[in-house]
Design goal:
Strand content: under 5%
Order of helices and strands: HHHHHHHHHHHHHHHHHHH
Number of strands: 0
Largest sheet: none
Structural class: mainly alpha
Mean pLDDT: 90
Oligomer: single chain
Helix content: over 70%
Shape: globular
Distance between the termini: 15 Å
Radius of gyration: 23 Å
Low-confidence stretches: none
Number of domains: 2
Length: 467
């Protein structure tokens, strides 16, 4: 079940919220936990058992670690933490990377080990990182161990951010799990945020994705340089509005229930360096790796060589986190190279020339999206040949010029939508005389338009389901 579906919008969500708002405070975590299990089981009835296993395992590990710390048994606490992390990583590794490892062994040795062909449990990368952060924080004594398994289950299975983030660390919601209030202001802000995210996903991301598939589906005579670059621009818009839209919907739903989730995006395409881009894109993942991998490795405290090695390690893992394929590993190494170059030489010159820095960053990011979107070596090679004009198709064709003319306004709208301009305009309208009416009506308009598009939608993918 996805947020941008009529099933979710008009069946699951109304029933869930009716029960949730009518339930007494002491029962809200139970309603959230059970509702989240129904949400997850709707698409993955078998793997809900895996979700429950992760919940019980880390709940038990958390209690045991907390007890060991209270008794001063440092060795036992560390052993329990290692056990918790090992269980989580083994589950993630088995379901996500087993076939990748087997396929790599077969390719290198020529062996014929059969693939397992296990379907990837939805959201396993997200909830695994969340539960690991919990046991690590308990070990560090930053949060107390959660004694109520229903409250802990609500944290792990919380459906707004279960399948695609943002990655919520336990300390972000620990107080809200114990005591939270549903307020009129929270409902108002949550509904607005949800409608913005729904509009991003349905009205922009889906249209960009359809154009991307159209351009990449053309035969070689039409796959000109302009067509190839336009295709990657469409993918850049698709993945941004798809993922940031989902994060907005998650934050909106959380706000309606009394939770405050961390921000996940802050206009990344306005960045003037790759370093700045990754401070604005998928911030909850970047923060997780910084806190639980980069800093424990030594961060920037052990000299420049160790710092560069730490960057390389973190981005190798970041690439593999996104998918069990060589293109994701190359994608991680691509950005590691830019981050290292900026750390050594480029940041100061880029800061003195922001316009140049912006162009450079967009080109670097588009190059990264080529690696990210092309999962097969053959399609990656075809794309690179087309983008560099080496496939013999030429610079442009009448077909691509017609598509640009037809979809130019949509692409310009997407470009503007990836900047702070819409938010600034919305604030000015709301502050103007009578602006309160527009501020109330435009979320409803977004919802109505999105619903109208969904009624006849034949193209409604969600990119991060595969991660």
């Amino acid at each position: 079940m996805v947020f941008s579906s009529l099933l979710f919008l008009f069946r699951f969500l109304p029933v869930f919220f009716l029960i949730y708002f009518l339930a007494p405070h002491r029962a809200k975590n139970l309603v959230l936990f059970l509702g989240s299990l129904v949400f997850y089981a709707w698409g993955e009835p078998v793997y809900v058992v895996l979700l429950l296993f992760s919940t019980v395992s880390d709940y038990g590990h958390g209690l045991a670690i907390g007890r060991a710390r209270r008794l001063g048994k440092e060795g036992a606490a560390k052993a329990l933490l290692i056990s918790s992390v090992a269980v989580n990583l083994l589950l993630l590794g088995f379901f996500k990377y087993a076939d990748f490892l087997i396929g790599s062994i077969n390719a290198v040795t020529g062996s014929g080990i059969p693939l397992l062909n296990l379907p990837l449990p939805i959201g396993i990368s997200f909830y695994t990182f969340q539960t690991m952060s919990y046991t690590i924080e308990v070990y560090r004594q930053r949060v107390p161990a959660q004694r109520n398994i229903i409250a802990f289950g609500a944290f792990v299975a919380m459906f707004p951010q279960l399948i695609a983030g943002p990655i919520v660390q336990y300390r972000d919601v620990e107080k809200a799990l114990r005591a939270r209030r549903v307020t009129a202001r929270g409902l108002d802000e949550g509904v607005r945020r949800f409608c913005i995210g729904l509009g991003k996903k349905v009205l922009l991301a889906n249209q960009a994705g359809a154009l991307f598939e159209q351009f990449t589906g053309w035969e070689t005579p039409e796959r000109t340089v302009l067509a190839a670059w336009t295709a990657m621009l469409c993918f850049a818009f698709q993945i941004y509005f798809d993922f940031s839209g989902y994060s907005d919907m998650a934050s909106g739903l959380g706000k309606m229930m009394g939770f405050a989730f961390p921000e996940n995006f802050r206009y990344p395409y306005t960045a003037k360096s790759v370093t700045e881009f990754w401070r604005r894109w998928h911030m909850s993942l970047s923060g997780w790796f910084r806190e639980y991998v980069y800093i424990p490795l030594g961060g920037n405290r052990r000299g420049i060589r160790r710092q560069l090695l730490n960057i390389l390690i973190v981005w190798t893992l970041t690439g593999l986190w996104h998918g069990a394929a060589w293109n994701f590993l190359l994608w991680g190494l691509w950005f590691a190279a830019f981050l290292i170059l900026e750390k050594l030489w480029l940041l100061k010159p880029l800061s003195r020339h922001p316009a140049l820095g912006h162009v450079y960053t967009l080109l670097a990011v588009l190059g990264g999206w080529v690696l990210f979107s092309m999962t097969e070596p053959g399609t990656l090679a075809d794309c690179l040949l087309a983008m560099t004009g080496q496939n013999g198709a030429g610079l442009w064709s009448n077909a691509v010029l017609y598509e640009l003319y037809s979809n130019g306004p949509l692409l310009l709208l997407m470009a503007a939508g990836s900047t702070p301009l819409p938010a600034m305009l919305g604030r000015k309208i709301a502050a103007a005389k009578g602006g309160w009416l527009a501020a109330c009506l435009w979320p409803l308009l977004l919802f109505a338009l999105s619903t109208a598009f969904l009624v006849d939608a034949s193209y409604n993918p969600f990119l991060y389901f595969r991660f």
